[in-house]
Amino acid sequence: MSYETFLQAPYLVTDPAGVIRRANLRAAGLLGVDGRSLVGKPLASFVDLKDRSRFRGRLARLPGTDHAEWRVRLRPRSLEPVQVVASVAVGRDAAGVARELRWLLWPPPDGEAGPAARSAAEGPPALDDLADALDEVVDAAALLLGADGAGLMLADRAGGLCWVTASGEAERAFERAQRDLGEGPCVDAFARGTVVWTPDLRTDPRWPRLAPAGTGNHIRGVLSAPVGLPGQDLGTVTAMTRRPRAWTDADAAAIEAFASVIGRLLGSAGEARRRGDLVAQLQDALESRILVEQAKGVLMEREGLSAQAAFERLRRQARARSRKVDEVAREVIADRPPRRGR
């Protein structure tokens, strides 16, 4: 199993009994099963027999808590056993009844997960891999919190928050507005080191200058958590909704779990890169990905290619010309013929 599989935050959602409802591709890869085949299967069936009784005992106690975290040894299909840290947040309805369990899985920090996970300690991930991981974790935050979008802001060397990635243009614009105005849930969460939320930005008096930006981008509910490592503040992760949202303690626990994942991902980049440089390089990497996606769209529309075939075309051209893929992507976008008016 590859390093990237562990790096990019496997997550899944189960009912309170532990039956899988949704899972991302990373979780499917971790468990050795096609994603569609996972739905309806008990998560306990992927737990090593030695840990299964203890796992079921913890599972039975979860509805009485908001968040739990423990180590468990998984037994993926046709793969070697792997030890992971399971971080679980409990999703409740308006009456406080547990309705779902939100799981995040990552390797233990001390290298006990086996040879595949230990390979992560061999060096910091490539920037493109780290950018992909952060992008996927942001999307996962939106999905598991039932939000319309999410965003990530990281602190530069001077300690100021800089927008890095978000799940959509409205979320990107909202993150930029907080950065430029110096106020908002992200700014407060970062300064206080605690989760900050608002059910409706339009009626919240704490950020009067930010409310118009939220209105313009149709952002109403906002939930933000600080991202960090012991003794190091790194940034914030934020979930956003287009309608008012009564956030719960379980939601707060869930976004704290995501913040912990992101902190681990950034920590894996190592001390080889200064934090301010890392933020700038990540921003470049993420913006390069946007260019590549746009160029893929051009090739798909112009030449009838699939998304994978379009990407392979870009990569072959880049290798043949000893250029970066994003440079070739920029040229493809520039050569796109203008649309004709109707």
Protein model, in words:
There is one protein chain. This protein is an alpha+beta fold and 342 residues long. The protein folds into three domains: 3-122, 2-Layer Sandwich (Beta-Lactamase), CATH 3.30.450; 127-272, GAF domain (Beta-Lactamase, 2-Layer Sandwich), CATH 3.30.450; 280-334, Winged helix-like DNA-binding domain superfamily/Winged helix DNA-binding domain (Arc Repressor Mutant, subunit A). The chain contains 13 helices and ten strands. It has helices spanning 3-7, 25-31, 35-38, 49-61, 115-118, 127-144, 169-181, 185-192, 211-216, 249-267, 275-303, 307-320, 325-334; strands at 11-14, 20-23, 67-74, 82-92, 98-106, 149-155, 161-166, 196-198, 221-229, 232-241. The protein has a five-stranded antiparallel sheet with strand order 2-1-5-4-3, with helices on both faces. The protein has a five-stranded antiparallel sheet with strand order 7-6-10-9-8, with helices on both faces. The longest helix has 29 residues, at 275-303. The radius of gyration is 21 Å and the shape is globular. The model is unreliable at 1-7, 111-125 and 270-276 (pLDDT under 50).
**Domain count:** 3
What percentage of the residues does DSSP assign to strands (E)? 15-25%
Shape: globular
Beta strand count: 10
Q: Kindly, what is the distance between the CA atoms of the first and last residues, rounded to a whole number of angstroms? A: 51 Å
The mean pLDDT is 79
CATH fold type of the largest domain: Beta-Lactamase
The ordered H/E elements are: HEEHHHEEEHHEEHHEHEEHHHH
The helix-and-strand class reads: alpha+beta
Q: Kindly provide the name of the CATH class of the largest domain.
A: Alpha Beta
CATH second-level architecture of the largest domain: 2-Layer Sandwich
**Whole-angstrom Rg:** 21 Å
CATH superfamily of the largest domain: GAF domain
